[in-house]
């Protein structure tokens, strides 16, 4: 059960045009927000512990972000792995660039670098 006092700043989005080629679809999703997360589940209901951890970290910094549930679309799920050359999820993008997955995001938070990375204004 989620904490009723926890504020989720993330917004799960869906694609508007699935007729485009896979790389265009992925680029369109990433460009939907300066901070974008491919994850399993949604911000209010993550479907794996790694995705839940990255959501907690992003919410800790009170930043706005958008997400895409890779479990809802197998083409995107497989395509993002090829696009990023990164085999696992979640995958966090900031200003269109891959920052990394759960381990890297956690490490960046612990060493104090993530706050500066997330400053997108």
Automatic annotation (TrEMBL):
Gene3D superfamilies: Glutaredoxin. It comes from the Bacteria. It holds the Pfam family Glutaredoxin. GO terms for molecular function: 2 iron, 2 sulfur cluster binding; disulfide oxidoreductase activity; metal ion binding. The keyword Membrane does not apply. Keywords: 2Fe-2S, Iron, Iron-sulfur, Metal-binding, Redox-active center. Signal peptide: none annotated. Belongs to the glutaredoxin family. Monothiol subfamily. This is Glutaredoxin. The lineage of its organism: Bacteria, Pseudomonadati, Bdellovibrionota, Bacteriovoracia, Bacteriovoracales. The gene is grxD.
């Amino acid at each position: 059960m989620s904490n009723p006092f926890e504020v989720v700043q993330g917004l799960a989005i869906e694609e508007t045009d699935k007729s485009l080629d896979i790389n265009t679809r992925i680029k369109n999703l990433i460009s939907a927000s300066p901070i974008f997360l491919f994850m399993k589940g949604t911000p209010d209901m993550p479907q794996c512990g790694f995705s839940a951890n990255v959501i907690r970290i992003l919410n800790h910094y009170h930043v706005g972000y958008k997400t895409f549930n890779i479990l809802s679309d197998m083409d995107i799920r497989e395509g993002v792995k090829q696009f990023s050359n990164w085999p696992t999820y979640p995958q966090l993008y900031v200003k269109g660039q891959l920052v990394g997955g759960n381990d890297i995001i956690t490490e960046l938070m612990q060493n104090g670098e993530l706050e500066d990375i997330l400053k997108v204004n």
